[in-house]
Fold these 2 entries.
Entry 1:
Amino acid sequence: MPEGDTVWQAARRLHEALAGKVLTRSDFRVPKYATVDVTGRTVLSTTPRGKHLLTRFEGGLTLHTHLRMEGAWKVYGTDERWRGGPAHQIRAILGTADRTAVGYRLQVLEFLRTGEEERVVGHLGPDLLGPDWAPERALANVLADPARPLGEALLDQRNLAGIGNVYKSELCFLLGVTPWLPVGALPADRAAQLPALAKKLLETNRDRPVRQTTGVHRHDLFVYGRAPRPCLRCRTSVRVADQGDGSQERPTYWCPACQTGPAPAPGAAQQWRNRYPRPTN
């Protein structure tokens, strides 16, 4: 699933391509909005809010989209070939005289009045990359349910908006605790570091084409996607298991030597064992 930095990049591409320009083409390939035509309207802005995108048009109209697991917005020049996927995956087209934005595999696409945007994003916690970022409130939200596993609390966009599965695993590694640690057991000094560290990870990567958390050119990430290769710090085999986020299970990575706290039940890790070759280095 795209995370806050990826959505921020998508919003910037859309804003730079469309903002201040009059639409010469619009096409929405979802049944509810198939007859909507915003041709002739000026695009005012595209703003990210957590993992949501809000594209505003003159006349007080907003297009709300969410990329979910596989969605993407691509921007093309007038004569450029579209390369985001087959035509049947296109859900939205917004075109100007010199740019065309194409939305692929958008699982959320809806129109609403601009004054009603809080209806779709008002539930979100402080945005790690937004003007409403409030570290004290974000931390209080995360710690509000002491028994909840830290990984689940970090993925809950009502606590703080922008963290996805990659940053969940990387942030827990940097804090030195497993994603299954109850948030109430998180040491006070590490809890105090959490908001600033989370923000730093997303801010550092919002302008990068390839996400990087290690500071080491040859290795982009500490644990995410590395099972069963050796941990970059201690050489212990990185492990992977499912962890829920309240809606579905997600692969979660951790180092059993560098990170203290509970591990998942044996069955959660067992199902991943045969998906990866044995480590060779």
Entry 2:
Amino acid sequence: MELAFIPSPSRGVLYLGPIPLRGYAFCIIIGVFVAVWLGNKRWIARGGRPGTVADIAVWAVPFGLVGGRLYHVITDYQLYFSEGRDWVDAFKVWEGGLGIWGAIAFGAVGAWIGARRRGVPMPAYADAVAPGIVLAQAIGRWGNWFNQELYGKATDLPWAVEITSTADGRVPGTYHPTFLYESLWCIGVALLVIWADRRFRLGHGRAFALYVAAYCAGRFWIEYMRVDDAHHILGLRLNNWTALFVFLLAVLYIVLSARMRPGREAVVEPGAETADGAAGADGEKDTGAASADAGADDPDTAKKDKDADTPGKTDAPEDTGDATDVEDAADAEGVKNGADSAKKG
């Protein structure tokens, strides 16, 4: 007998009149807002302009949703195109089914378009938004809880999730809450990336690559626990192979990038402040003008500046009388010594 478990919602949608309010969709929306909020804070800290992250997200989010759905439909095509299935269901995103691999890949394409339009280096933008993206994933995974999906093997552990739905062949019972495991893992990845970025000043896309590698490491073992239908290759689920392949690519990128482009970008957005807070080109121009005005108000300073601009003129002391007296004395002594030598000769 189960002593404790995590209960699943009795339903994943509430109706506000004719308008359906779906828990899955709310989790996705909240995750997007968190990603943009945190990404904006990190972007400004790197020297970027406020609002740039949101402007680029306008491109990245729709691309990500399309890519995530395409990956899910292609890799689980039997759910939509096999006998007895309705292919129209492939467009029902609110019912669940977004592949993170497709979402990140297509979202990166959208972000690249937005970054190009803003004149922003894509690697720097990716580094800024990486922790926010993985936090969005942590929040989005709770949408699977509302839909009673993506759980693991049966268990009687106190933190097991109770499945009550019988839709799509589900068997009621208590199972490993793999959605919860992945959510907690994603929070840990976000903290890891934030710490590593501060400690090692990661740049040129390495913070984003660290997020990808760390997420894939966790996704591999979490995916291994899941019991939902999936394609298998050599005994492993397709997503296991995808996680392994992407993990190796991310690690390779970190190693090569650190060798070829060490350090981090000094300027991440044209016209904005640099990462260390120094003023941009306009600030330097204003500073130079202020210095010129100050010099004009001080006659002595103006005179020194004029002398400095005269070719061949140095900043030697104005009173050279002492030096002249020394030279005259030396000449007189030389004449005297010459006369004495002549007498002796």
